[in-house]
């Protein structure tokens, strides 16, 4: 298990709020016939209440949430499963917590301008995350570096094109075994 040459058991779709994590991760999971998990499901209620009230999360707020997602990744991978997870993973230290040293987990970075994402957030309805937190999301974001081997895709494209781009870069099977 956990060899660098092994095809991934988990793809973590990361980026700021509104970059399209839920949308792209859902479509990618469907394409690959993998499970989908929304990282937001692992937030304690206090974190969601804080964001809803317009306050950015701190590192301390995020550690237990990241550990819970890392637990889930470990569980799926050790059971020989496959999962696409939507999780902001904004800082490198957050990504290190999520990986726990695994080499069979890769990040998909949704790369887009603040102007484009603000425009999409302004149109989005029925979500707890206020568009006003986008500034702090961009201030916190540390885009993944080359040594993290991210799969980076531009979000300025239709969903299907983005998913095709990810599948072309990720060395994953598109059929269940
Ligand atoms: N490629 C795309 N083209 C056009 N609209 C898109 C695209 N991807 C996502 N959207 C739209 O942008 C908005 C934000 O997408 P989504 O909710 O998936 O982002 P998110 O990163 O999961 O956000 P959050 O982290 O706040 O949950 C949604 O209204 C979604 O329909
Ligand atoms: O790290 C964070 O600040 C939070 O996780 C946010 O990214 C939210 O989870 C998400 O973007 C809203 O759905």
UniProtKB/TrEMBL annotation:
Q: Which GO terms describe its cellular component?
A: cytoplasm
- Name of the protein in its database record: Gluconokinase
Q: Which organism is it from?
A: Bradyrhizobium erythrophlei
Q: Hey, which pathway is this one from?
A: Carbohydrate acid metabolism
Please give a single GO biological process term from the UniProt record: D-gluconate metabolic process
What keywords tag this UniProt record?
Answer: ATP-binding, Gluconate utilization, Kinase, Nucleotide-binding, Transferase
Q: Which InterPro entries does its entry note?
A: P-loop_NTPase (IPR027417), Shikimate/glucono_kinase (IPR031322), Therm_gnt_kin (IPR006001)
Alphabetical list of Pfam families matching this protein: SKI
TM stretches of this protein: none
Annotated EC = 2.7.1.12
Q: Fetch the CDD domains from UniProt.
A: GntK
- The answer to whether keyword Nucleotide-binding applies is yes
Any one GO MF annotation of this record = gluconokinase activity
């Amino acid at each position: 298990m956990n060899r660098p040459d092994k095809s991934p058991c988990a793809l973590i779709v990361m980026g700021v709020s509104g970059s399209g994590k839920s949308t792209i991760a859902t479509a990618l999971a469907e394409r690959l016939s993998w499970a989908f998990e929304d990282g937001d499901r692992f937030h304690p209620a206090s974190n969601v209440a804080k964001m809803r009230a317009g306050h950015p999360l701190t590192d301390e707020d995020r550690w237990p949430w990241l550990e819970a997602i890392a637990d889930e990744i470990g569980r799926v991978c050790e059971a020989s499963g496959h999962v696409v997870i939507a999780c902001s993973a904004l800082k490198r230290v957050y990504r290190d917590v999520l990986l726990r040293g695994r080499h069979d987990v890769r990040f998909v970075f949704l790369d887009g301008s603040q102007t484009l994402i603000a425009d999409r957030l302004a149109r989005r309805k029925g979500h707890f995350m206020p568009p006003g937190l986008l500034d702090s999301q961009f201030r916190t974001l540390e885009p993944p570096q080359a040594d993290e081997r991210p799969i980076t895709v531009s979000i300025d494209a239709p969903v299907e094109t983005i998913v095709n781009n990810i599948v072309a870069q990720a060395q994953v099977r598109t059929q269940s075994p």
